[in-house]
Amino acid sequence: MNMDYKSQVRKRTEKLRSSLAPGDRIQREQRINEHLIAWLQAAIAGDGIRASGRTALSLIGETAQDPPVFSGNVTGTPPNGMDSIRTNEESTNLAQTKADQSDESAARSARQEELESPVFLAYVPFRSECDIKPVIEACWETGIRVYVPRSIYSTRELKFYEIHSWSDLEEGMHGILEPNRGNEILSDLLAVTAVLVPGLAFDRSFGRLGYGGGYYDRFLEQLLIACGKAEKKVPPLLAAAFEIQLADDLPMEAHDIRLDVIITESGIYTRT
Question: Region annotation Disordered: residue ranges (predicted)?
Fold first, then answer.
């Protein structure tokens, strides 16, 4: 694709996106978020993937159940003198052991549940991009794990880190919010359930025009290679965009990767 043409498309699309009236933008974003949440729910249900989120009520109910404490006498042992002290110590130790075992079992169960949870690769919206924060918050509420990218400028690549709240973000280069380095990094590309890819323009054949840095192109190539080596299906690649970002045709190069789903305020477009 001609670089001048790319530049023209980027400028035109950014101008259109930035010119949306506040009220109109809010309504469009609300519909996009509704469609995206619906798509995620359907995709997870269709793949048999379990969203393992728990409500505050269930957590309160679980933490309110204390492990049984065995105290008092052992049958046949008189409650006096050293025997009584020893009996109480043994009972306390037994209770503590059972409590520790219960805690360890609960921790293992919670970790296993977390590992089985869907993994959604998203991004923090910047400037005039569609605000998809409600989708990320909905994921947190339903137990879908959310990872967002941190740019490594020296190698021009992306590293994804899990975030649990907006406080897990910090301002990076160009004012873009990025995850803290202390958060858990995505180490297994095969665990990814779906990838939300940002972009400036998209076409009817599911081509994408990014911002020119090539960061996502490199990451998506890594993802495809990893899935190919493991003979595993590539997770769906999707975009959330305003209808005004769609073009009839964007010339694609041989290495460009097409998306599977484009979600706009008008509906959900799926590549067949």
Answer: 1-22, 68-110
Angle in degrees, 0-180, between the axes of helices 22-46 and 133-142, rounded to the nearest 10 = 30
The mean per-residue pLDDT over the stretch 156-166 comes to: 97
Per the rule left: phi > 0, alpha: psi between -120 and 50, beta: everything else, 195 is beta
Pairing of strands 237-240, 157-163: unpaired
Q: Where are the domains of the chain?
A: 3-53+117-270, 56-114
pTM of the model: 0.76
Output the average pLDDT for the chain: 81
In the sheet that holds 145-152, the strands lie side by side as: 157-163, 145-152, 119-121, 194-196, 237-240, 261-264, 267-270
**At the topology level of CATH, where does 3-53+117-270 sit?**
Rossmann fold (3.40.50)
H or E element: which one contains 161?
strand 157-163
What is the distance between the alpha carbons of residues 163 and 147, in angstroms, rounded to a whole number? 6
